[in-house]
Design a protein that fits this description.
By secondary structure, the chain is of the alpha/beta class. The chain has three domains: 83 residues, Arc Repressor Mutant, subunit A, CATH 1.10.10; 100 residues, Periplasmic binding protein-like II (D-Maltodextrin-Binding Protein, domain 2, 3-Layer(aba) Sandwich), CATH 3.40.190; 106 residues, Periplasmic binding protein-like II (D-Maltodextrin-Binding Protein, domain 2), CATH 3.40.190. Helix 1 packs across helix 3 and helix 1 crosses helix 4. The longest helix is centred in the first third of the chain and has 28 residues.
Length: 303
């Protein structure tokens, strides 16, 4: 039994719907249902009356939920005490962000903020999208920075989590300029000359972005994968030192494009516009976070 399962039951009691509760918990409905079933197996009784609509908790479920809410309050209160002891000295914020954004966007953005909030201290935690969301949902950070595309939404509950748009990026295919092999490494490729692909592991957000690009183009690209990684920085290194193309966010390769070390490996139709969103929990009562948020609301970038 895990704490998340108890939180699942509390949310299910609130929404009275597996689909809505699963969306609020950023889970698939099937995954959410399995967790509720796992909790029922641990308790040894049915906690949810699935024969009614909207669904309701059984007497055992109501009894368990009442006890669980008290346990959760004590756990979270204790966690808050521990976290306060572990905070940065002085006013500070913990920010969860993807590895690429931690390198390409956050340094300049934080430097700009420091001109307004001179005493601001930030602790950046580079991680993947899934773990960033968990950090925000579990209260392990004040801010979460992530890429967004309308067709690849993160499904955070808008009633609890709000966002600001802090920038834009372009997901684009690139190749090194020197030592090309007769144009082989340029889209769309052919059956006789497929394009060598420096790609992402399937569980990453950028892999989903690439799949969307190819789907929009009717999967007409002829690609031959020969290397993959879950980090865009690694793909960038490979693109600079080997034949093949890699889809990378422009913010990560601005210097290489300007110097001529990398160049576009396809037309505009092979790119994807991305939004940079900064999320916070509306329930977070930090005065510094509220002040920072109000400042950023007045300085959002134009599309």
């Amino acid at each position: 039994m895990e704490v998340e399962w108890i939180e699942d039951l509390v949310v299910l009691a609130q929404y009275k719907s597996f689909s809505r509760a699963a969306e609020a918990r950023n889970l698939t409905q099937s995954g959410f249902s399995r967790r509720i079933q796992g909790l029922e197996q641990w308790v040894g009784a049915d906690l949810v009356d699935r024969s009614s609509y909207p669904l309701s908790l059984t007497p055992a479920g109501l009894l368990f939920k009442e006890a669980a809410e008290g346990i959760l309050r004590k756990l979270f209160d204790t966690r808050s005490i521990i976290r306060n002891d572990e905070r940065l000295q002085g006013p500070g914020l913990k920010i969860a962000a993807g590895h690429t954004l931690s390198v390409s966007f956050l340094p300049a953005w934080l430097n700009a903020l420091n001109q307004r909030f001179s005493e601001l201290r930030a602790r950046v935690v580079p991680t993947n999208v899934h773990d960033s969301i968990l950090m925000l949902v579990n209260g392990n950070c004040e801010l979460m920075l992530a890429y967004h595309h309308p067709e690849l939404a993160l499904h955070l509950d808008p009633t609890r989590y709000e966002y600001l748009t802090v920038g834009y990026d372009l997901f684009m295919p690139v190749r090194r300029v020197a030592k090309r092999a007769n144009g082989q490494d340029r889209l769309p490729g052919t059956a006789r000359q497929p394009v060598p692909l420096i790609g992402y592991t399937s569980t990453t957000y950028f892999a989903r972005c690439l799949a969307l690009v190819l789907r929009r183009r009717g999967n007409t690209a002829v690609l031959q994968p020969y290397f993959e990684s879950d980090m865009a920085e690694v793909l960038k290194k490979m693109a600079l030192t080997s034949n093949g193309i890699a889809w990378l966010p422009r913010s990560l390769i601005d210097d290489e494009l300007a110097s001529g070390a990398l160049e576009p490996a396809g037309e505009q139709r092979w790119t994807l516009d991305l939004e940079l969103r900064l999320y916070r929990d509306r329930n977070n009562a930090s005065p510094l976070l509220a002040q920072l948020w109000a400042h950023m609301q007045g300085s959002q970038p134009a599309a």
